[in-house]
Specification:
The protein is an alpha+beta fold. It has a single domain, classed as DD-peptidase/beta-lactamase superfamily (Beta-lactamase), CATH 3.40.710. It has helices at residues 2-16, 28-41, 86-99, 133-137, 164-174, 189-203, 207-216, 229-233, 277-288, 302-309, 368-387, and strands at residues 46-53, 56-67, 72-73, 80-81, 225-226, 243-245, 252-254, 273-275, 323-327, 333-340, 344-349, 354-360. The strands form 3 sheets. Strands 3-2-1-12-11-10-9 form a 7-stranded antiparallel β-sheet, sandwiched between helices. Strands 4-8-5 form a 3-stranded antiparallel β-sheet. Residues 1-22 form the signal peptide. Its EC number is 3.1.1.-. Keywords: Hydrolase, Signal.
C-alpha cells in the first residue's frame, strides 16, 4: 500500500511541473518548439528570433504570421518597425559624431540649438541650466516623460507634416522642462527628438539621411531606415500587420494601418526605425567587438565604446541609451538590452557571449510574459548546449 501511495504521489508531482521544463533539457530545439506553441496559443502573432553565440549565428527561427488573416508567414528578412530600439541607434550615431569632432556630448544643447536658450521649468521658474546633449540619450534631460500628459508629441496634430526642425523648435517654445536637468530619470522620446535634431545640425543632413550615412551604410545595414514613404513603398512584400490583444475578446486584433509619411516630415525619432534581425545583428556584433567591423576596420574607437557602454550617473541606461539589465559581482554591466512597444527585444550578454534579437509586431505589453520567458529559455539553452561540459555516457 505504501508503494502505491508513493507512486501516486510522484505522478502528481510530475504532473504539476510545467511542461517544457520537466521533460526536456534546455536546447535551441526546445526554444523553437516554444515559439510554435506560443503562436498556436495565440500568445503572439509571429516574428523572428536570431541568436548569436561567440559572434556566430546559432539559431535563425521565423515563427508565426506577418498577416494572420492571410496566413502570410514571417521570414528572417521581414522588416519591422523596431519602435524604441531606435533610441540606442541614435545614441550610437551621436557617439560616432562626437568621435569625429562634430559635437560634444557633455556640452549644453544650446551650443547646437540656440532656440533652447533660457529654458523654463514647468513651475514657471527658469531652469538652473539647459540639458546636456548626453542627458538626452539617458533620459535625464528633464524633458517630459512619454508617460506624462502630452509626452508623446508624435501623436499630436501640431507635429503633423512638419520637418523635425520645426517640431523641435515647437518643443523649445511650448514645452517646459518637468525636472531640473541631470537630477531625475524620466523616459522621454522628446529627448530623443532633440538629440536627432542636434544630429541634423552638426551633420548638415536630415535625420533620415544621417541614419544612413552614419550607421546603416558603414555597418551594411541595408534594410534599416526611418518609416518614410519612399523606402516603405519600395518594399517588395510590404510591412507586417501590427496586432494588439483586445481587452474584451482576448483575441489578437489588427491595429489601424499607419501610412508612411513623406521623407521630409517628422515621425518619432526614437520610435519609427524599420529594420531586420540581420541588420540589428550587425549593429550588436559591432558592439560585441568593441567597435570593430568584420573587415577589421573601426566604426568606433575602444574609448568611445567604453564610454557608450558605461552606466549613466543615474537611471537605468548606459550612456549610449541601452538599458543595463545585469551587472556582475564586481558591479560591471554584463547584460544590455532594449525593447520596443511594437513587440521587439534585443540583448547582448557579455558573460555568455550571446546576442539575441526577437522581432514581432504584437504589442509589447501584450507579449511581455512571452518575451521574458523566451529570453530565459534562450539563456538556458545556450548554457546547456554550449557552456556546460558534455555528460559522458
Amino acid at each position: 500500500m505504501f508503494a502505491i501511495r508513493a507512486a501516486v504521489l510522484i505522478l502528481v508531482v510530475l504532473l504539476q511541473v510545467p511542461s517544457g521544463h520537466a521533460d526536456e533539457r534546455p536546447s535551441m530545439q526546445s526554444v523553437e518548439a516554444f515559439l510554435q506553441k506560443s503562436v498556436e496559443k495565440g500568445s503572439v502573432a509571429g516574428g523572428v528570433l536570431l541568436v548569436y553565440h561567440r559572434g556566430e549565428p546559432i539559431l535563425e527561427a521565423p515563427f508565426g504570421f506577418a498577416d494572420l488573416e492571410a496566413g502570410k508567414p514571417y521570414k528572417m528578412d521581414t522588416p519591422v518597425i523596431i519602435a524604441s530600439i531606435s533610441k540606442p541607434l541614435i545614441g550610437t550615431i551621436l557617439f560616432r559624431m562626437q568621435e569625429a569632432g562634430k559635437l560634444n556630448l557633455d556640452a549644453p544643447i544650446t551650443e547646437y540649438l540656440p532656440e533652447f536658450a533660457d529654458p523654463q521649468m514647468k513651475s514657471g521658474e527658469p531652469s538652473p541650466r539647459p540639458p546636456k546633449v548626453g542627458e538626452l540619450l539617458t533620459h535625464t534631460s528633464g524633458f517630459r516623460s512619454d508617460y506624462e500628459d502630452g509626452g508623446r508629441i508624435w501623436f499630436q496634430d501640431w507635429t503633423k507634416e512638419r520637418p523635425l526642425s520645426e517640431v523641435v523648435a515647437g518643443v523649445a517654445k511650448n514645452i517646459p522642462l518637468n525636472r531640473v536637468p541631470g537630477t531625475k530619470y524620466a523616459y522621454s522620446g522628446i529627448g530623443t527628438d532633440v538629440a536627432a535634431r542636434i544630429g541634423e545640425v552638426v551633420s548638415g543632413e536630415r535625420r533620415n539621411a544621417f541614419l544612413q550615412s552614419e550607421l546603416a551604410e558603414p555597418l551594411q545595414m541595408d534594410h534599416t531606415f526611418y518609416f518614410a514613404k519612399t523606402r516603405v513603398d519600395a518594399l517588395p512584400e510590404g510591412m507586417p500587420i501590427r496586432y494588439y490583444r483586445g481587452s474584451r475578446s482576448g483575441k489578437l486584433l489588427r491595429y489601424k494601418k499607419r501610412l508612411p509619411l513623406d521623407d521630409e516630415f517628422y515621425s518619432s525619432s526614437g520610435g519609427t526605425v524599420v529594420s531586420t534581425a540581420e541588420d540589428l545583428g550587425r549593429w550588436l556584433l559591432m558592439l560585441r567587438s568593441r567597435g570593430i567591423l568584420p573587415d577589421g576596420s573601426r566604426y568606433l574607437s575602444a574609448a568611445s565604446m567604453d564610454a557608450m557602454l558605461h552606466p549613466a550617473p543615474l537611471g537605468y541606461n548606459a550612456a549610449g541609451g541601452l538599458f543595463i539589465r545585469r551587472k556582475n559581482d564586481q558591479g560591471v554591466p554584463v547584460l544590455y538590452a532594449h525593447t520596443g512597444s511594437s513587440g521587439t527585444n534585443v540583448w547582448i550578454d557579455f558573460e555568455q557571449d550571446v546576442i539575441g534579437i526577437m522581432l514581432t509586431q504584437t504589442r509589447a505589453s501584450d507579449i511581455k510574459p512571452f518575451r521574458i520567458e523566451l529570453q530565459d529559455r534562450v539563456t538556458k539553452a545556450v548554457a546547456s548546449e554550449y557552456l556546460e561540459p558534455a555528460v559522458s555516457k
